[in-house]
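Worked example 2:
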Amino acid sequence: MERDYLVSKETGDRIIKFRDERNWKQYHTPKDLAISLSLEAAELLEIFQWSGEDTSAGEKLDKVKEELADVLSYCILMADVCGLDLDEIMREKIDRNAEKYPVELAYGSKEKYTELKNKSRN
């Protein structure tokens, strides 16, 4: 099954244009964007607060979409302000994670990489 995960250049450009049309870039420092990103991520988490055994998005999907869009928007804005290429930094992170979590040790395990390495030595 083929999936599209990343936003298109057009969508990213629309986010930047939206910001620029309102002259908000002056407020978008890395510190303030990091704070905003954290707050939006907390709002995403809040959707599941007190949900007990219900851990699926199910009926909450509309709210999940809204908050996830906010999180992604702030990621794009942060990358823009810092001059980072999101595709490049994601590839680098995947490569680092592949080294930390080799398939033969990590398959089906929820252990942190430090625990996986300890198990492989035993």
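The mean pLDDT is 91. DSSP finds six helices and no strands in the chain.
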